[in-house]
Amino acid sequence: xxxxxxxxxxxxxxxxxxxxxxxxxxDIFLLSNQHAKLYLEDIYCELFKTSSCNxxxxxxxxxxxxxxxxxxxxxxxxxxxxxxxxxxLIFRLIKDKHIKLSHVCEELNLTKRNLNNYLKNISTIxxxxxxxxxxxxxxxxxxxTPYSIKKFKFLLMFKxxxxxxxxxxxxxxxxxxxxxxxxxxxxxxxxxxxFKIINCDFIKHSEISLFAFYSSFINSSKKQxxxxxxxxxxxxxYRPQYxxxxxxxxxxxxxxxxx
Length: 259
What we know:
Oligomer: single chain
């Protein structure tokens, strides 16, 4: 059974009494009814080791809700999604600066063709932060200034903290063992403030957190700037158009007053 972070997110909404039928799941996670049913069936099969095809969706949801230790069971079966494999590769490059191609393929169960496709995606992401990849027969090497690497490391840490409940154990353990911040309690307090500001469904957390960190390190052609160096009017240039003025101002002030 293929279990990923989406299954864990749906399980959490069921356990928290946020859904009672397929339509609720579809609406919250922006899925079609058919896809929502497939996710629900996967969860049920993994927990009960049998199909739920003869059960109504409401009954299936209720049985999942009261199944003890469900989260740990799903986590033990969880696999990395494509985006999480890319996240893992990015993290390893930030952490080790150089990784061997054969080791990466073995760790993530990738063919060299799939790895090449992932590296193209990573190169596109890195280019936004003045980072580059040097790929040779010896492996993959990260190239960038200490400033660029440091800012990207903080972005990864923040992303991990936002998504930590739904990351696979493999990815979570790697990152937790690497995280070294001088004042980690301050960082956690900042995260708490951030959640109070955004006050939205979990599925939007990643987008807003990445926007906040992108805005924290604005790159110009002449010099590298942080949000501390720019005005609110310039900050507005980088916001998605569907973020209203007041919400953008809260994010701006949050970034000005935190690490």
